[in-house]
Design goal:
The chain is α/β, with parallel strands linked by helices. About 60% of the residues lie in helices and about 10% in strands.
Length: about 850
Amino acid sequence: MNKSYKYILLTILAILTFCIIISFLNGADPRVTALLLLMTLVFLGLLLPKEYIIITAIFLIPLAPHTKLFSENLPAMTIELPFAAVYGIMFLYPAMKRAGQLKGLWLLVGCWGIFSILVVLSWRHAGSKNANELFAVNHFAFLGALLVMAAAVYTNDFDFKKVCRAFYTVAFVVALIGLFQYLFFPHFINDLYINAYMKSGMDSGYYGRIYDRALSTFGNPHTLGLFLGIILMFATGSNFWGFTNRWTKYAWIVTLLSVIILTRSRTTFICLVLGYLFLICFRRYELKKIIYTLGTLAAIFGIINHYLRDNWIDKLLNYDMSLHARFVRWDMALDRFMSSPVFGVGPNPNIRIGNDMSSVPIDNIYFTVLASYGLLGTAALALTLFIIFYQLIKLANFDFRSKNIALGLGCSLLMLLIGNLSGDFLFHPKVMGPYMLLLGCFMVAGQIKTGGPTKILIVGNAKSIHIQRWGTSLAQKGLSVHVLSPEAHVVEGCSVHVIKGASLSVLSPAGMLSFVSRLLQVEKKIKVVDPDLVHIHGAFSFGWFAASCKGSPVITSTWGSDIYRYAGASRLKYKVVKSILKRSDVVTVHNRQMADYVEEKFGVSKCFVLPWGIEDRVFRLEDHKGAANIREALQVPEANKIVLSPRGMTPLYNIEVIIEAIPLVLRSDKHVTFCFVRGAGSAAYEARMMQRALKLKVNDHIRWIKKFQTSEQMADLYRASNIFISIPETDSSALTIAEGLACGSIPVLKKLITYRCFYETGAVIYTVSDLTPANLAAVVNEALKKDAREIRAINAAAAASLGTWRNAVSRMVELYESIHAGRQVKGVRQVE
């Protein structure tokens, strides 16, 4: 839209607004004011982007006051009805242009159109001349118009999150108005939202029934409670998608629940509880979470009830005549249906009881449709509901977020269907209108194809060689990779986000402050990155922060030391590891032995066996540039054999046992040099080991490699070494061992069940069963006596059967796509 066109529209809009104000203040003909208002809406729709019209409708529907401006015969009419009608007509053409991409949405529009036709037919069939009875047509046309508005915003940059936030905001505003009304009895709110329902002679009685109940902008406690319940259920089902702050979310939940309780609507309470039970069934929540949630709801309920004007728990539970009255109406509705079973008796949902009583609603949408529109209307209603559920199931398979949003909308619709057993909420503009608009926007967003996951958040120490390899390899696959790390380090092709603060014991005040600080930092970083998937490497305490802020699918890759050693250090650490694994959607492990251990020890069966493999273009038997000069670089005599310790400088890898074994090895062969790689280990621990070597007087036979080694440099070290030692307390199917084998070196390993996969390859491997310096030295001496040239080819060929790094990365991307698409990964599956 060019600027001159925009200025012209703004000028016309300002003139129309001025005319509306003048006509209203001077008491002009209401029809003139209504015409000016509709013209204003038209020009506003031409001026604003279509998605802002949607947001305007989201606010207007629940907040629109009742007015007698348009017709004295339609006192309950609200201004959102002509609003939707005007924009439905305006957006009909652009919406129809996208009909090919939005077939499901237009199918629903057609259903409401069929309903409108059936209402007209039943009205004509009943021979009624009262146009007020035909007013129900507006409700169906209203719902169809909202869907047309949603269809008109179909663009590739449509942001459904904005729509969700608008719904959360308007629900909060409605709840605040309800609280204000309940506490302070403001007459202007009652005049706008309640008095339109009144008829002469019923004011005192109506106020007598509702004076201690929240009504807000709905003028009815049941419709208010059900509207807030639907939005709350949708937010819960979608994992509160769209919220950016934890405390804002908590305040929003408490406010909505408080107002729902103040409505004292048994219908809402029953619908909310049953909807939550549906959610539990579909989500398969843990029993502990269910108990915590229900306990919290009970506490809020009890606190609010304590401060009410009168304790009404007994009133809530006691049987009264309302249910009996409903049974009478339903029986009479069946009699009406039998008088005209095909088309019904006309679109008047009310029936008359007695000779001197006003007509009352049937209070059951299913009996209302059956009596008013006959079997044809009932079949149309069933078809409409079936199509809605079918579209939700179809959209749930799009991706992970769509699955959650569809679940929220599905449970909300189930709440509505249950509530309609004692009310006519399904066609209520202020209840069904917001739901249909939210559904339509979701159906539009579901057709915007975004492919697989594009943004991955890796959680782990950026200094780790594993994090570096995964980050770089995934980035090379075209993914946007972010790394959340407790330490700063460059990862090629990735954005690194550092979490400040030391990892201290939570039992101390400083540790508690550090814990809270790091948790809030992680939560903020995750919201800023907004990843499609969160991939935690290592189920350690740092990973727990990311798992606790779950808003995206979470994958956890166990490293071995986390589940074997870290979890066994204390009961608290075991709980941390278990919590991470339980919160994860999928847990990847290196072999079936680890999968069995995770299931047995932590009760987690959602394991996916994915061996990482080696980078065969780097780790191979043939020498390349740099390998021939490795001895010169390390100043190792040509006659000396090299024993490599490739694991990091941490107590986990029993480096001290290797140091203690060096004098024993040198007794048999003095022409041996030991090389220790610090890697991502501790410099302080390395210093202690250096002091120990000095005391043992073996430092001349040791080379300390303190700089971080690239994959190419590690390959040179493996090829230059005769043997390498890996004797950790616990381990997974270590990538280090596979890389060493691929370069032809001979491994000396501690006997671990997770190393079984290496023995099965047929490689030449030496094992230390009882780990002591003497036993280790004996095994090392035996291995050094072997002819390395004969064994190198055997071990390199054996390593080829362990898979390649390229294959592992491709399979990981496939796993990402599977989880992102909402396809559940069940059981243990071998990735070949």
